TrEMBL record:
It catalyses: 5-methyltetrahydropteroyltri-L-glutamate + L-homocysteine = tetrahydropteroyltri-L-glutamate + L-methionine. Residues 438-760 form the Cobalamin-independent methionine synthase MetE C-terminal/archaeal domain. Zn(2+) binds at H652, C654, E676, C738. Zn(2+) 1 binds at H652, C654, E676, C738. This is 5-methyltetrahydropteroyltriglutamate--homocysteine methyltransferase. The gene is metE. Residues 5-316 form the Cobalamin-independent methionine synthase MetE N-terminal domain. Binds 2 Zn(2+) ions per subunit. Binds 1 zinc ion per subunit. The keyword Acyltransferase does not apply. Pathway: Amino-acid biosynthesis; L-methionine biosynthesis via de novo pathway; L-methionine from L-homocysteine (MetE route): step 1/1. Belongs to the vitamin-B12 independent methionine synthase family. Its cofactor is Zn(2+). L-homocysteine binds at I443, G444, S445, E496, D611. The lineage of its organism: Bacteria, Pseudomonadati, Aquificota, Aquificia, Aquificales.
Length: 766
């Protein structure tokens, strides 16, 4: 039996990836220095892998995103970027003025760049897999070149299609839905993959690792036929190891018949794969890659159980590899540097007092778990003892609060309902707010300047006192309110200067949730965040946002929005325990947030925004699992948003596909939603063409905040005009498509000025 791992976080122990990338963007390091730095990361990654596992891949250090790399590999450079001129063009595509759309990778918070297929003329442009393979080969290191399967690539792409009789532009980008189209695209793209594999083979590679998570979506028989043909073609050159993850494969029997050398399963996210292996057995001529170590959660594995599982699998097939269940880049690098995690407070007889740290395993520790399992199976005495020690540790109960559990058990149907229906609420609210047509607002955060970040770290380091820090935040709020009033916005925000991150901020205030010091994870490009760890029952010991919001409101006559992060997003962007259902954790968070809503309401706040940018990404891959998810996700939102009818509840969502879930979003029963739509042009608008009963107010983001470019008035107006084709103008709000914290004031002020001017013009014109 061998161990294999993949998807190790490329960030580096000291976030070297991020600093290198950002220094390069700022022109502080040359391209040559940049590439040298990236190679150092490659070396570090190979060292890390090889100290624990037998087999590991190459082509894992992408300079922005591995899907974008694949688009470049096959020559899919949209024409607006002109001819490909190397790394410059690459970053233009990723983050330039006309950057490509970003979307979330399956049900995760990793954002990939959505390939735009303008034609079927694919050609080999950049052979990244070969480049990295050769880099390691020159150092005498044998790696498994890793590629995204053509099928998954196409599933994640959008293709230019002709619109038929809709209000959209004549050509627009759309997912490849029809089987005939998929076949045509596959036929067009496969020759490029063949060329890549041929070149790899010439250079000595005999095996490749192909990631095909799209095989976990619902698939029909015709799609399986295409996938079969695809692997037939790819297997002509090298041995193919195909891995799937984030869910069970959609059809086990078809999957195991694919003409490949090894088949990889996620044995953690659901029980289906394992049940099928047990039921149908496993072909004797193939290798089984068992993803048994959870790549998405931070808990130490119960190794006794894992070993039992491996022993069972070994009886089914001797050709076994054990692996992580999905890419490890969802995890921080190591728990080693975490010194301040909570300690178990209740001493249980016969059990050691332990810190949360002892229960955790991040990416590096996961590699060690694979190694330990292998050694224990091979009979190493020391490994066996270590397994037993860990088993003892992880069985200690942690963070239980009976009163929280009781509250959840006592919830009644009416706890999920607002007292007055939307149509009546909206009249009450307008009576209070008196907003003009096309009301203008922002999504919450304003620039987190160098100064803001410096003051925060001084405060955290104890260099300035709490009162000094609070004074400083107040000054920032004052400035922000003044700027917004000068620009002429209708609904103001306090700017979120006191928040590091929209989830971490609440995590630090809630009990039962731990935050780390160094647990950074990349979400896209160079953007990192530290997912909190929900380890116990969650409750709110004290108000979390009331002080700053009320202060902001005291400075202006205009309404200031209270800003909260929703329960689904807090849950989805955190690691969470696996011993109680997700539904229950979501309700626990929702109850804590409801207390906050009630406090804001009592403080006279008239609008409360509960952000749910992660609402979409939590949607399961398979339709059969949707009902259960939406049931608790919608209810969790409703539970925390049960404000008085005159209080206007907003929510915000971004960077996801919403078309197919708009009906569910509607059921959340908010009053206003703001939604991203400037990058994913058109499509969200299509959804409203279909869902005619939509009657909630909505702000379709009029410009992309991820780009430093100041949007023109024409581009802002065109989003509004597009929206007006499918939505009554009375429902429309005008706002950017997300928070502005990553931007600079010099960009924000002119952008918002343009936005407000457009809104004013629209009030005159329509
Ligand atoms: N209110 C948050 C902000 O403006 C929302 C961020 C988000 O949607 N990711 O920063
Ligand atoms: Zn957003």
């Amino acid at each position: 039996m061998q161990t294999l791992a993949y998807g190790f976080p490329k960030l580096g122990e000291k976030r070297e990836f991020k600093s290198l990338l950002e220094s390069f963007w700022k022109g502080k390091v040359s391209e040559a220095e940049f590439l040298t730095g990236m190679n150092a990361l490659r070396d570090w990654m190979a060292d890390t892998y090889s100290s624990s596992v037998d087999i590991f891949p190459s082509n894992e250090i992408s300079y922005y995103d591995f899907i974008l790399d694949t688009a470049l590999m096959v020559g899919a450079v949209p024409s607006r970027f002109g001819e490909y001129k190397g790394i410059e063009t690459y970053f233009e595509m990723a983050r330039g003025r006309q950057a490509m759309e970003m979307s979330k990778y399956f049900n995760t918070n990793y954002h990939y760049i959505v390939p735009e297929l303008e034609s079927k003329n694919f050609y080999l442009l950049k052979n990244y897999p070969l480049e990295e393979y050769l880099y390691f080969k020159s150092k005498g290191i044998d790696t498994l070149p890793k590629l995204i399967s053509p099928y998954t690539f196409l599933k994640l792409s959008k293709a230019l299609v002709k619109s038929e009789g809709s209000s959209l532009p004549f050509y627009h980008l759309s997912k490849i839905e029809k089987i005939q189209d998929m076949e045509n695209y596959l036929n067009a793209i496969l020759p490029v993959y063949e060329e890549v594999l041929k070149q790899l083979k010439q250079e000595g590679a005999r095996e490749v690792l192909i990631e095909d998570p799209a095989l976990c979506y619902d698939m029909d028989s015709q799609e399986w036929d295409l996938v079969y043909e695809m692997y037939n073609c790819l297997s002509k050159y090298v041995h193919v190891y195909v891995i799937t993850y984030y869910d069970s494969v959609s059809d086990y029997e078809r999957f195991v018949r694919l003409p490949v050398k090894a088949l990889g399963f996620d044995l953690v996210s659901s029980t289906e794969n394992l049940e099928n292996i047990r039921k149908y057995g496993f072909p004797s001529d193939k290798k089984l890659i068992a993803g048994i170590i959870n790549g998405r959660q931070v808990w130490r594995a119960n190794l006794v159980e894992k070993i039992r599982l491996v022993e069972e699998l070994l009886k089914i097939t001797p050709h076994l590899l054990i692996s992580n269940s999905c890419p490890l880049f969802h995890l921080p690098i190591s728990v080693e540097p975490e010194e301040e995690l909570p300690v178990h407070s209740v001493q249980i007889e016969g059990l050691p007092t332990l810190s949360l740290k002892e229960r955790l395993a991040f990416a590096k520790e996961k590699l060690k778990e694979l190694k330990l399992i292998k050694e224990a199976i091979e009979g190493h005495q020391q490994a066996r003892m270590e397994v037993e020690r860990i088993q003892h540790l992880v069985s200690v109960p942690f963070g239980v609060r009976e009163e929280v559990r009781e509250k959840i058990a006592n919830l009644k149907e009416e706890d999920f309902e607002r007292k007055v229906p939307y149509r009546e609420r909206s009249k009450l609210q307008q009576g209070v707010l008196q907003l003009p047509a096309f009301p203008t607002t922002t999504i919450g955060s304003f620039p987190q300047t160098e100064e803001v970040r410096k003051m925060r770290s001084s405060y955290v380091a104890g260099k300035i006192s709490e009162s000094e820090y609070k004074e400083f935040i107040k000054k920032q709020i004052q400035q922000a309110i003044k700027i917004q009033e000068d620009i002429g916005l209708d609904v103001l925000v306090h700017g979120e200067f006191e928040r590091t991150d929209m989830v971490e901020f609440f995590a630090q205030k809630l009990e039962g949730v731990a935050t780390t010091k160094h647990g950074w994870v990349l979400s896209y490009g160079s953007r990192v965040y530290r997912p909190p760890i929900i380890y116990g029952d969650v409750y709110r010991p004290a108000p979390m946002t009331v002080e700053e919001i009320s202060y902001a409101q005291s400075l202006t006559e205009k309404p200031v929005k209270g800003m909260l992060t929703g329960p689904v997003t807090i849950l989805n962007w955190s690691y969470y325990r696996e011993d109680i259902p997700k539904r229950e954790i979501a309700y626990q968070i929702a109850l804590a947030l409801l207390e906050e809503v009630k406090d804001l309401e009592a403080a006279g706040i008239k609008i409360i925004q509960i952000d749910e940018p992660a609402f979409r990404e939590g949607v399961p891959l398979k339709r059969k699992d949707w009902k259960e998810y939406f049931d608790w996700a919608i209810k969790a939102f409703r539970l925390c948003s049960r404000a008085e009818p005159h209080v206007q509840i907003h929510t915000h969502m971004c960077y996801s596909e919403f078309n197919d879930i708009i009906e569910y979003i509607y059921q959340m029963d908010f009053d206003v939603i703001s939604i991203e739509a400037s990058r994913s042009k058109g499509e969200i608008i299509e959804a409203f063409e279909r869902f005619k009963d939509w009657d909630r107010q909505i702000g379709i983001g009029v410009y992309d905040i991820h780009s430093p470019a100041v949007p023109t008035k024409e581009s802002i107006a065109s989003v509004l005009e597009r929206s007006m084709k499918v939505l009554p103008k009375e429902l429309l709000w005008v706002n950017p498509d997300c928070g502005l914290k990553t931007r600079r004031w010099e960009e924000v002020i002119p952008a918002l000025k343009n936005m407000v001017e457009v809104a004013k013009e629209f009030r005159e014109r329509y």
